[in-house]
Design a protein that fits this description.
single chain; alpha/beta; 3 helices; 3 strands; about 15% strand; globular
Length: about 110
């Protein structure tokens, strides 16, 4: 399978004005804390390098947490950070997503 993951914020990073209930929810569902559960799903992380909504550091932390688990099959983990891009997808990301899904679809 392929994993669809919300952008990880990183430990202690919270959106402005977050209430304690949201903080608990974010902590409970933090993919970095549950990295072991993702293997062997294929994971593609796309992030804008200048994202003002979810810091790219969260995707970097998740990629680093996943890397040891994916060492035996590193093609199943891909992290793309687009310099200069905010909280949107670049046109090139569409091709990246399609190619990744084609490589990892069940046969």
């Amino acid at each position: 399978g392929v994993a669809a993951i919300g952008a990880p914020l990183g430990p202690g990073v919270r959106p402005p004005g977050s209430d304690p209930a949201l903080a608990r929810l974010l902590d409970d569902d933090d993919p970095i804390a549950h990295a072991d559960a993702l293997w062997p799903r294929a994971v593609l992380l796309l992030h804008g390098g200048d994202d003002p909504v979810t810091p790219p550091s969260g995707s970097r932390l998740l990629a680093d947490a996943l890397a040891p688990r994916y060492a035996a099959d590193p093609d199943r983990l891909r992290h793309v950070e687009a310099p200069g891009l905010g909280h949107e997808l670049a046109p090139s990301h569409a091709r990246e997503v399609v190619d990744f899904l084609r490589r990892h679809r069940p046969r």
